[in-house]
Design goal:
Layout (H helix, E strand, L loop, with lengths): L12 E11 L2 E13 L8 E2 L11 E2 L6 E3 L20 E10 L6 E6 L1
Parallel strand pairs: 3-4
Antiparallel strand pairs: 1-2, 2-7, 5-6, 6-7
Length: about 110
């Protein structure tokens, strides 16, 4: 994480799937996160910019792999991803996202763990 820029987005759908697998080492558990951001969500006036055009300019936001998503609003600043573990709300690293702003339910979809 080079630079952290917080964008608060209200009105999203946040889902956590608690996955458990069994292998030769026993039980393994992991959380799989799915977030949908409706195109009509409240971004505080910030405009979405695709990651290949994102410059970090004030009033813009983007989605890209290895970014972090935190449920809830947190005023504390973070210096590194490990700082997210001190909060009680779930946080995850984005490993996939898609721009689905077409059709009847325009939204962005985020997946991560």
């Amino acid at each position: 994480m080079d630079t952290y820029r917080r964008t608060v987005i209200r009105g999203v759908w946040f889902y956590v799937d608690h996955k458990v697998t069994v292998d030769s080492d026993g039980l393994n558990a992991a959380d799989v996160f799915k977030v949908r951001i409706p195109a009509s969500a409240d971004t505080g006036g910030a405009e979405f910019v695709p990651p290949w055009e994102y410059t970090g300019a004030e009033g813009t936001w983007t989605l890209q792999a290895d970014d972090y998503v935190v449920r809830g609003i947190h005023e504390e600043e973070i210096e590194r991803p490990a700082d997210l573990k001190k909060w009680k709300e779930p946080a995850f690293r984005i490993n996939s996202w898609s721009d689905n702003r077409f059709g009847g339910l325009p939204h962005w979809r985020i997946g991560g763990a």
